[in-house]
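Margin note from the TA: students keep mixing up input and output lines. Inputs are the sequences; the output is the structure of the whole complex. Example:
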Amino acid sequence: MSTTFFQACWRRKNVSVGLITVDIMTKVTLSILQVIIFAAIAPLVSGVIAKIKNNLRFRCGASIFQPYYNIAKLFAKEEVISETASWIFRATPFIVLASTITAAFMVPAFISGYKAGDLLLLVFLFSLGRFFLALSALDTGSSFGGMGSSREMFISSFAEPAAILSIFAISLNLGTTNLSAINSLYAIKFSTIIAAVSLFMVILAETSRIPIDNQETHLELTMIHEAMVLEYSGKSLALIELASYIKQVVFFSLMGTILLPAFLSCGLVNNFTVFAGYLAKLFVLCVLVSFIEVNLAKMRLFRAIDFFSFSFVLALIAIIMAALGV
Amino acid sequence: MANIFNLHLGFLHDGLSLFFLATILLISIPSGIYSLGYLKGHFSKGKILYNWFLFILFVVSMLLVVAVDNALVFLICWELMSLVSYFLVVFDEKSEKSQSAGTTYVVMTHIGTAFIMLAFLILYKHAGSFDFSVLKAASGTLSPTAKTLVFVFLLIGFGTKAGIVPLHIWLPQAHPQAPSHVSSLMSGVMIKTAIYGIIRFVIFILGVGSLWWGNLVLVLAAISCVVGVIYALMEHDLKKLLAYHSVENIGIILLGLGASMVFLKINLPVLAVFSLAAGLYHLINHAIFKGLLFLCAGSVYKATGTRNIEKLGGLIKKMPYTSAAFLVGAMAISAIPPLNGFVSEWLTLQAFFQGALVSTSGIKVFLSLCAVALALTSGLAAACFVKAFGVTFLAQPRGNKAKEAREVSFSMKLSMCILSILTFVFGLFSAIIFKNLLLISKSALGLKALDVNFSPNNLTLAAGNNALVSLPLVAFMLIAFIVAVVLIFIFAGKLQAKKYNTWDCGYYKLNPRNEYSATAFSKPFRIAFSFFLLPYKKTEKIRESFYHVKTFKYETFTTPVFGKYIYAPLLGIILGIARLMRRLQPGSIHLYISYIFVTIIALIMFMKKF
């Protein structure tokens, strides 16, 4: 990248500083716009990943718009719920979607998200959705649900320390845990990249990707996320699916912003290329995830500890490097 | 030398004492209301009166502990509190468990008190008075060795009461045995008086001597929180599970405290104030949600007569209020926004982060690792409470008692409701509360003049950092989005759903035995932490013939590492010495007379010498 490009970004950055000072309504509107765009493109990301994976395996595969068709189909279908289930089961899809959207509200992707929380809050917001999803899985009294719930909590409780440590490493370089800080141009240090790799491993697990979970499988003994939502149908399932698509986009955006902050920091209204750059970042991440999914096998559940240990050690290295100022 | 019995009876009214007084009253009042309904029908009239007598004495003794301004009076109140709580632990004298739990408790707590006494005696010898003000003034001139000794004694003494690992051994035994409203007080408040002791005597009076004090507290705290939550995950007794979570949460509180001690020593007073305030915030939060959870556990026990969650299930339909209250408590303790547990864990994490940001390299990594311990703890705690809530309240009842459960009486519902509301209040209005806690923390650290920047609308941090969390906003967004989606569904006419059986793979109707049990739920954790839990299993086959197994029994256990490898050998040594000492007492009166004679001779010689 040439210096002129960075200069251009700096100039855009100045524009965005001006934007921040305009009234709060603009910010709220922009954030709502971001959430709507998130929700709109979220299924597409999954569709693209599925398509790339299929192409890598020399298959034709479904259209990249398949997730939209799925959601539309689910919305149209009648919902069946278990007799055993309580209000937790009914409320969970709404809570999961709301917590994901709240997270999406704050993440800086192509506009600086609304300042209501920081990176740490993001981790805990997703745990709100997960908590209810795990409860609803137990609610129906099916042993598959219990299995999924137990495994999900198992994996997430090991993912959390790695996530916090890599967030610490990234934030140490930034000087704050504030989400909008990753939105600004900063000199990327080597430790940030290592921490980002560690965070990426956590993201793979959180978005139920291979090698931790497999979205494609419905084999009872291996599925985790799918086992939790096994009893859901119709609109509720659509909401949960939508929430997990949005969650994926939120994580990918976060990842993209951490590694390549140069593409953003400007309002969508000002510059359309920012949005294009954002989409390009998403696409690169999609390709990366597809390659990982195609080339790796799903790990045994207890190997997940090794996976997270590796992620944890990477984050620790990043912390040490950050402490040394690298 | 002043007469030690010339007691000056005064009360403190600084921020720290007032804070603890408020915390104690905040939990005592709902517990008192709760006991109205809880004790009815459980015990005889006389027994209930006896309980009230002990309960009030217990609360008063706790209030005195945090209010008096004299170390000797403090000790007397401390002892009163310990003894009264002992009688409350063995209140249900029919149960044999409560007797042995009470014995463990009374022994452990007195070991702790002995160490506190030693520390006080060292201080008294130096200062010549038991008055806090005199002690504080004199502690400046205390030699470093004596200071260290006092610190270690105080840490052991108060650590025993607080339940720091490995001194926690009594806590999961004693707390569940007391009646539930007392458990809520013991877990919610009594162990916090030990934290008060540490803040008052180590930080306020003694002053932090060197950097390793803080580091030691941090390491112990990190171990306590992880060990506590791992044991809690393995537990199926609802109240015992909660008691282990007290060990965990004391660890989290001490993380804040230890960080504060470290920051004091590396010259970061603003952060020291901040992290002590974070610790205090978690203290009051834990008092609220643990009090709430114990009350809920008591309601479950009252309604079903069992505390074993494997035999419960499906209570959410029978006991809607209790289950809602338990859910609120479970979310709060799992640090889920926007409830109060999240606020204090976030603040503690921020304290570590801020510390890591400005400190030098070694401490940077150390503080980050403390944050990791906290993150692991909160992840595991969430798992544990998914288990506790899911297995107790969701799915179908797995026992007859759970099937016949009914919602508890009004007074019990009322007190659970009060505490549930408090968890929301302490989450949503955290900015105002934290501001006051900063003032308390400043006065406790003796840094009153310090200016800690603070924005009242959100939890903005000092030191030029603008990390913030605005929980009212988060809560508003969550509710707004939920309402929005629900409204869309209502307008689209999409809320109704058909009810049908849970999918059973097409075999036969599922029964409660097909459900995931607590043991099954915690199996991955048991395997992951097998290096520490040392699980083993017992299988038993009853055969009709060689080929036909009639019944098969399978039980899994985890080894209580601390009990088996630390306390059992220690107890063995003590009993061995006692056996040796017994030879001195063969029962012969002649021998005893000769003992008296020898003692008198020795005393005369001793007196002659001086």
